[in-house]
Amino acid sequence: MSDATREITPRSTLKTIRRQAKRWLKEIEAGDAEAIVRFRKLIPNHAAVPKLREVQHALARDYGLANWAALKQELIAREAAARGHAALVALFLEKSALRYGVRPGTQSWGEYEADRLARGALAQRLLERHPEIARDSVHAAVAAHDLAAVSAWLSKDAKLADTPSEFDGWTPLIRLAFTRLPNEAQSDNAVAIAQLLFDHGADPNALFSDGTNHFTPLTGVIGGGENNQPPHPQAEALARLLIARGADALNGQALYNSSLGADDITWLDLLWNETEKRGETRRWHEPVRELPAPPLDYLLGNAVPRQPKRAAWLLAHGANAQALNAYSKQSLVKQAMLDGRSDLVRLLVDNGASPVALDGQEAFTAAVARGDEAEASRLLTGNQEFLLSPAPLFVAIRQGKSEIAALALRLGVSPDAETQDGVRALHDAAGSDAIEIVALLVEAGAEIDPIERRYGSTPLGWARHQGASAAQIYLASRSRDVEALCQAAEIERLEALFAEEPALANAPARSGEPPLFCLPDNDTSACDLVEFLLAAGADPAVRNAEGMTPAQAARKRGLLDAAALLETSLLPLGEKVAARSADG
């Protein structure tokens, strides 16, 4: 925006900007005419008293930026620069790449932020403001896709082509494969950089691990996975080059990741053709790393019942129609029948699978899945216990068909039916971001915050973990799960709950720890939450079962700014005043 009336100065920080927003909100709430006029000029047609988030949005516009997220990114970039060149480069290397939940420099999965677009956007902003980053090391040059800089480094020392980074242990080729910056023009250099790295000795089968699974450069360029990570913009050309230079085309993790997306055979075709060139297609029938069954049979189990195009390809290339699903150990024909997929039933039977007869609960589930209300009603006669199984609702979620869920609920299937480990349809729908089905379940009276026994989480927790934004927004406005609300940084909902029950600020959350131990993965969002919780009376000196304070727990998770904020809150009053004065 070009009409900014405020200017970010060297003394501006996230702390000072947050304080500005809070002061402005207090002035508005107190009826200060000048503060109200200023707000309405920036946010027209907003007659009601604004919330803090709306004031933050207005403040961002006053600084000439589109929104609060953009203002925070700008300040993060500036603060990194103020901490020095090394901190700037480290932040760039961290944020520029997909990391599949693995904290840099570790094999620790599950406690690191998800691969969101904002990560790459922040890295791109850093690079644009500080182009000298690309000249820091061969790793920074590769992440920036700067061909000239990579060439300069390798001309000095060819061994750098395969030297792991001290920051995260990745080789330059791994970094190239997993980097995702929102600038496709830069990515045009990727193939040339890969060729250069290979010419200087890069290992095409280098990898990093999450402690169980292995992620190679081929895995990285293909992308995909449980959070639908994007492929590299030059994915196909890079994949062909990697395989030509010795990468194993039968990459179990890449096959798994790509099986979770759309009904598409692009990568199946490419990887099959590359193994065929080498006379290795037999390996598709043999065990490979990362997959619990031979690739063709395992992938067929993943394709049924949602991906008919992939299923047909797999059967045409030798998958066994009689194979069992690797997880449920169930007949694939039965799975297709239970989901009402007569097209896949015919395909499997035509390729040698034995027909299956269903009865009891399974017959009822299949009838609902087919939309055969008359047959489903007939099967219910004398069998009201069928209504206690969530199976028909799970079918609706897998198929993405709200009409199946509506029929099941109309017939009387309980919206709170659950599996043996307590997973309910609302958990599954929330994690899948099946917002229409989420709404149907809630309207039918589904409990909002049931805790399943598999992960000990609520539907909101599932939505947050899977990045299911629509379901998260819908459920957050109704949930009382303080832990998930904190982890999702749903401050507005927390404000409402704490207004009703102030003691929640220090009460044990679902995990048994108070809210200050339930911070989001993103440091900026964690700071926002910490400020809110401290203002609500949360005790920063409390300790958890491991004897750690919230600050120590945050620092252990790498939430360094949030940890600093918590540590400052523990200072004596005089030192707090001095610290605030230093912040401006």
Automatic annotation (TrEMBL):
Keywords: ANK repeat, Repeat. ANK repeats lie at residues 421-453. It comes from Bosea lupini. It comes from the Bacteria. The keyword Acetylation does not apply. The keyword Repeat applies. This is Uncharacterized protein. InterPro entries: Ankyrin_rpt, Ankyrin_rpt-contain_sf, Multifunctional_regulatory.
